[in-house]
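Page 42, continued from yesterday. The earlier attempt failed because a stray header line got pasted into the input along with the sequence. Redoing it now with the clean sequence only.
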Amino acid sequence: MPIIETESLTKTYHMGDVELRALNDVSFRVEQGEFMAIMGSSGSGKSTLLNLLGCLDAPTSGVYRLDNVDVSTLGEDELARVRNKKIGFVFQSYNLLARTSALANVELPLLYSGRGRSRDRAIAALRRVGLQDWGDHLPSQLSGGQQQRVAIARALINDPELLVADEPTGNLDSRTGEDVMGILQSLNDAGMTIVMVTHEDDISQHAKRIIHLRDGELLSDQLVENRIIFGKEGSAP
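This time it went through. Structure tokens are written below.
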């Protein structure tokens, strides 16, 4: 059973009398354990698609099934629970609270879900990204790569089934970006499904599959033949 299934997914925006079709009739499936990159030029619809897959927006028409559930049938409270427990989010700009420690930033989704703080769970999540000793540091005391690792740890705290990443290396230098991709590959190797938006060819080659969008339409869908594996043995730092 696929974790993601879209059928004729379409998203239209209205700006006065102007109609902008950001996505047009997009259909594909993502099986559990896949690592898929979404590529396309600016305005191709890739961020719009990721927002739909992350249940941050609703399509104008078409069907999106997440774990075989039609997302359009869910109410706002149910959608909030799905976003908090089933999906982990990683953004280009990290979105960390500046005056809050790394550990407390990682714990935030637990508070939103009503589970309360758990230092042990937060430390375990930081350990998965190699930052278990940095929990007391503020974001300003961390490098860009470390901040993105904290953001990934935060996305993992509720053990999501799906990780969606929007340009996760966009603010990082090439070496640090490689480190972050190594972490994502390690998570995928452990069974996590990952869908990532990127405009960088070399970053997309870390995924197992790439779909290309152009003008809101699905242009191609292909497996990565010469996949880049982080490090000699493909393990994260």
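Notes: The beta strands are 2-15, 18-31, 35-39, 61-66, 69-70, 87-91, 162-166, 193-197, 209-214, 217-223.
Reminder to self: strip header lines before submitting.
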